Amino acid sequence: MAKTVAIEQTPNIGIENLKATPARLGAFLKDVRSEMRKVISPSREEVQATTITVIVTVFVFAAYFWLVDNIIGRGIEALLHKLTQH
After folding, report:
1. Considering its fold, how many domains does the chain have in total?
2. What is the mean pLDDT of residues 13-18?
3. What span, in angstroms and rounded, lies between the C-alpha atoms of 61 and 57?
């Protein structure tokens, strides 16, 4: 007896995705345009204010870390000096 095998025809998903690419690209560009309309540029005063805030914050943290580093460094030096004395 001969056996028959049923082969199902499955659509080629790669071709379907390729055909849908222009529509997806158009929808993506439409969304980009919509989101770009919502974007606002900061004023000169806002940029200056935030820049000054960042610079001051950097200097404050630099001073803090310098102080902590010196305290820890001197503490370790004192500890090593005590431990190495005979």
Report:
1. 1
2. 79
3. 6
